[in-house]
UniProtKB/TrEMBL annotation:
The lineage of its organism: Bacteria, Bacillati, Bacillota, Bacilli, Lactobacillales. GO terms for molecular function: dihydrolipoyl dehydrogenase (NADH) activity; flavin adenine dinucleotide binding. Residues 346-453 form the Pyridine nucleotide-disulphide oxidoreductase dimerisation domain. Residues 8-327 form the FAD/NAD(P)-binding domain. It catalyses: N(6)-[(R)-dihydrolipoyl]-L-lysyl-[protein] + NAD(+) = N(6)-[(R)-lipoyl]-L-lysyl-[protein] + NADH + H(+). The active site is at residue 444. Keywords: Disulfide bond, FAD, Flavoprotein, NAD, Nucleotide-binding, Oxidoreductase, Redox-active center. This is Dihydrolipoyl dehydrogenase. Pfam families: Pyr_redox_2, Pyr_redox_dim. FAD binds at residues 53, 145-147, 312. Disulfide bonds join 44-49. It comes from the Bacteria.
Length: 465
């Protein structure tokens, strides 16, 4: 019909940006409508963060069971039923979480419309479902449409050439998986399949994989891959691919020479592009950046005052927790609260082996900015809990301001890095000093104790090193 239905706050997309914004907006008294063309939960819950970590867990379990452990444990005949792994990943892991989100949205009386949203102008959005279309006139709109994998010329996603979604649901564990693009997503999935028994070849354009992490951190991951027989080709350019029923052959250029590698699947993970096409943005006064991202101010407001944008469609790291934070800021801004996006710390994690985590300043950024900083580094090899876990690889780094002793950054390579980094984020967000950390009693023995040890090192009063 042409008659517009009046709604309060409409949110396009139900990923970690959109669903969190919806719940918070409802909590703050708004009547909320979510429009979702795919599955509730977005990329993260359905084909991103969550299923990838599920496969990583399965890989850990298989690797541990098929390799002699130092505990005196030998397991014979351990094998994985891939169909069951896939069913567990989908039915137990993904569906539990997406079902949970749907329940939370219902609990908060959020209206969910399954359909494709397209702006008509600055006030209305058209929602197209399989057989109908409805015009919604909104007071406020939040664009949380996320991003999709970039396809490179000559590597059309079909058959054995897969994107990050396809690689999560392969019909079998590949004997040889080729990965083009050694960023976080490519490297994590390569690591999962390495543990599941695949031979791995990573082809990366830059001089190193995991470019967002410094060389001292990445070195640890590269050596783990090497130990597992993986090949990592850097400064390489993937040129073309051919495939038949059973295999793919990738041609790439490295060190000035053309090479080929044959495997059974190739994952192309070279980056993601914001979902700003087909959204009808041309019909609005919303401005995009050169990279196709939606321009926003520090309240996530676009150039149209009643339309906001969050998550992968705006600038900043394409991370779920960053999308959710922006969702909460936006819901509060629409509710008229005096709030801005003032995140000091956005942690980033690679779920590799071992895990990498970073927040705030790094040794490289300290040097580049000429900061008066102290870098303190403590190895997991000196941590009791890590020794009992036979997980002594890696270290914790805390970066403090030399004068105030305030924590301005930190990196963790090692067991539990994804959990431990929150302690440093909390310190940064609250302006805590190394003494604030070192004077806090940490349980013994625990991995977190190594953060206290690193802080003691920053104080100049180390006990365990
Ligand atoms: P999305 O999650 O992309 O959700 C957008 C939603 O909008 C989708 O459901 C889509 O269907 C819907 N939509 C789009 N256009 C329309 C339209 N016109 N009408 C209606 N609906 C529409 N991040 C982390 O922080 N940690 C991780 O461990 C991690 N692992 C990842 C692993 C993989 C394999 C991938 C691919 C990504 C991973 N990410 C991770 C990134 C993370 O998934 C994204 O940063 C996050 O999902 C972005 O959230 P979002 O809400 O902006 O958008």
């Amino acid at each position: 019909g042409t008659q517009a239905r009046a709604v309060d706050t409409v949110i396009i997309g139900s990923g970690p940006g959109g669903y969190v914004a919806a719940i918070r907006a409802a909590e703050l008294g708004q009547s909320v409508t979510i429009v979702e063309r795919g599955n509730i939960g977005g990329v993260c819950l359905n084909v991103g963060c969550i299923p990838s970590k599920a496969l990583i867990s399965a890989g850990h379990a298989l690797h541990a069971a098929t390799h002699d452990s130092p505990f005196g444990l030998t397991i014979t005949g351990a094998k994985l039923d891939w169909e069951k792994t896939q069913a567990w990943k989908q039915n137990t892991v993904v569906n539990t979480l997406t079902g949970g989100v749907e329940m939370l949205l219902k609990k908060h009386n959020v209206e969910i419309i399954r359909g494709e949203a397209r702006f008509n102008d600055n006030q209305t959005v058209n929602v197209i479902t399989s057989d109908t279309s409805e015009l919604l006139e909104f007071k406020h709109a939040i664009i949380a449409t996320g991003s999709h994998p970039i396809e490179i010329p000559g590597f059309k996603f079909e058959g054995r050439v897969v994107d990050s979604t396809g690689v999560l649901s392969l019909p079998e564990i590949p004997e040889h998986l080729i990965v083009i693009g050694g960023g976080v997503i490519g490297t994590e999935l390569a690591g999962a399949y390495a543990n599941l028994g695949s031979r791995i070849t990573i082809i990366e354009g830059l001089p190193k994989i995991l470019n967002g992490f410094d060389d001292e951190m990445v070195k640890v991951i590269v050596s783990d891959f090497k130990e597992k027989g993986a090949e990592i080709v850097t400064s390489a350019k993937a040129k073309s691919v051919t495939q038949d029923e059973n295999a793919v052959t990738v041609t790439y250029e490295a060190a000035g020479e053309e090479q080929t590698v044959r495997g059974d699947y190739v994952l192309v993970s070279v980056g993601r592009h914001p979902n700003t096409n087909n959204l009808g943005l041309n019909a609005t006064d919303i401005k995009l950046t050169d990279r196709g991202l939606i321009e926003t101010d520090n309240q996530q407001q676009t150039s149209v005052p009643n339309i906001y944008a969050i998550g992968d469609v705006v600038a900043g790291p394409a991370l779920a927790h960053k999308a959710s934070y922006e969702g909460k800021v936006t819901a509060a801004a629409i509710a008229g609260q005096d709030v801005i996006n003032c995140a000091v710390a956005i942690p980033a994690v690679a779920y590799t082996e071992p895990e990498l985590a970073t927040v705030g300043e790094t040794p490289d950024s300290v040097k580049a900015k000429g900061l008066n900083a102290k870098i303190s580094k403590f190895p997991f090899a000196a941590n009791g809990r890590a020794i009992t876990m036979q997980s002594t690889e890696g270290f914790i780094r805390i970066i403090t301001d030399k004068t105030s002793h305030i924590v301005i950054g930190g990196q963790i390579v090692g067991p539990g890095a994804s959990d431990l980094i929150s302690q440093l984020s909390l310190a940064m967000e609250n302006g805590l000093t190394s003494e604030d950390i070192s004077l806090t009693i940490h349980p013994h023995p625990s991995l977190g104790e190594a953060i206290m040890d690193t802080a003691e090192l920053a104080d100049g009063l180390p006990i365990h090193i």
